[in-house]
Amino acid sequence: MLSWVKYGRQQQEEACESFNPSYSEEYSNENLVEKMDPGAILSSSLTYVKETCRPDRWFYLFIYLLINAVTLCIVPLFSGYLYRIMEATSGVPAVSGIKDLFCKGWKMNIAGILYALPFLLITAVFYLLITGFIPAPSNSPDSLGPEAAAMLMGLLLAFIVITLLVSLLLSLLSTLGMVRMTRNGKISEAFNLREILASIKTIGWLDYIAAIIILIVCALAFSIILELITFAFWILLGALGSLVTMFLFLWMLVIILLAAALGVFSARYMVLVYDNKTTP
């Protein structure tokens, strides 16, 4: 741990905007397929994860993600590394430069918070509307009349539909918006709707939506894997209760490492989708 801290301090002299990581040519984006191919992008992203998550990088990614989680993204070092992945036009970015990772991680935080504002606003509005139909002090739907109950159910249904549509729209925009922000170095570029929509049009709406669906399916599959791992650990924990501390540590280790791999995979996948906008 002391060696990691010493190494990190040696790299902090790099400024937030002047960081220029070294890359290998093996993962250059210049050789993208000429047409959107989700299968090829998926395969390339998985290969990239294998290279990025080598043993000499696992430790750093593990520590960065652990710090992200413990500090509730106040010290977003792992988010900063994902920023580097998205800004890179080729190769695997370095894990050094704590100051740079912190600055870029906060850019990701700010953009994410701003993208979440429409969802939060809609939730607040519907909450006020729905609670307004439930009379005080009972605060129970059973106290409503038939017409008021029907309006309440209508509001709940509208909230679900609008929330799903807004979430879908924000996902489509933020996926390319985040990459665009990293490429231009400005948070405002994450919300440049004109350029984002132009990029989606160039990629093709159907191809782009299909790529996003594949990414969502991969995330769901990852969640299922985590659930299975958790279930298996709890079974082992019941059989070998005397080793509870060791099993909890191993469970946390596996979960964090897999989460880091998913983060790297998602960031690379988004990059390859974004870069397809430049192909004919």
Overview of this structure, please?
It is globular, with a radius of gyration of 22 Å. It contains 9 helices and no strands. Helix 2 (38-52) crosses helix 9, helix 3 packs across helix 4 (77-87) and helix 4 packs parallel to helix 9 (244-275). With 280 residues, it is an all-alpha fold. The chain starts with a helix and ends in a 5-residue tail after the last helix. The chain has one domain. Helices cover 73% and strands 0% of the residues.
Which keywords apply here?
280 residues, mainly alpha, disordered N terminus
What is the chain-wise order of helices and strands? HHHHHHHHH
Please report the total strand number as a whole number: 0
Shape, please?
globular
Alpha-carbon Rg, integer: 22 Å
Mean pLDDT: 81
Q: Mind summarizing the main beta sheet?
A: none
Our estimate of the beta-strand percent is under 5%
DSSP summary: helix tally: 9
The low-confidence parts are 1-26
Describe how the helices and strands are arranged:
Layout: H1 2-11, H2 38-52, H3 55-70, H4 77-87, H5 98-133, H6 146-184, H7 193-203, H8 205-239, H9 244-275
Helix pairs in contact: 2-9, 3-4, 3-9, 4-5, 4-6, 4-9, 5-6, 6-7, 6-9, 8-9
What would a concise description of this structure say?
This protein is mainly alpha-helical. The chain has helices spanning 2-11, 38-52, 55-70, 77-87, 98-133, 146-184, 193-203, 205-239, 244-275.
